Amino acid sequence: MRSIFKDDGKALVVAMDHGMIGNVQLSPILNIAEKVIKGGADALLVTPAAARYLIEKLSRRVPLVLSIPYDPQYVELAVKLSADAVKTTYFGRVPLDWDMMEKIWAVARACDEWGMPYMVEIVPCDDSGKILYDLEKVKQAARIGGELGGDLVKTTYVGPSKAYRTVIESTFVPITIMGGPKMDTVKELLTVVKEAVDAGATGGTIGRNIWQHEDPERMVKALISIIHENKDVEDVLKIVER
Hints:
Layout: E1 11-15, H1 29-39, E2 43-46, H2 48-57, E3 64-67, H3 73-80, E4 85-92, H4 98-114, E5 118-124, H5 135-147, E6 152-155, H6 161-169, E7 175-178, H7 186-199, E8 203-206, H8 208-211, H9 216-229, H10 233-241
Parallel strand pairs: 1-2, 1-8, 2-3, 3-4, 4-5, 5-6, 6-7, 7-8
């Protein structure tokens, strides 16, 4: 975990695992990876196949979080690839049904055996798959992720900051917020991250709002300034808009 999180206990993980669901906007992946690393990203979230490719091609080492299926064997693969953590993804009803909990537990047990940090992503959705920005549901998601063995929970942000602090306090493991679909403005993203960090989140695991921007490097620099330097949104906007 210390390879991902700095001494302040915070991190910006750039999510780059969207290609597995057919998103080809994340291309060329090496070019984007180099830009976000130059911007100061603390870690990259990628699939095992992309990890193999990037490990060979990147000009310098960066911590990697592997997005894996609910298969404990992939934890061993992550160890072989020298990954720094693994992540599983769940978008659906909260609380989870027993079968889903068993799947997460199985990966958590494998992570314990291999000494591999585990990011559990739990995003509350309705029956149609629409994300629910509901404070009580996000609280449940945060607590469930910790109870099932996650070392870190990735979930949605629901403002304002004072309200989100109750989400942070609802569990006993760190929380990283997701970025979700590309937001309407850069200021909206920066405000969300600032409020989340002020509430006690470790930072964000953010993808589209970084690499769909015309300058991913500057977007990362701006987010890093908020997460690690506690700068204000208006000051950080200058980094992106100059």
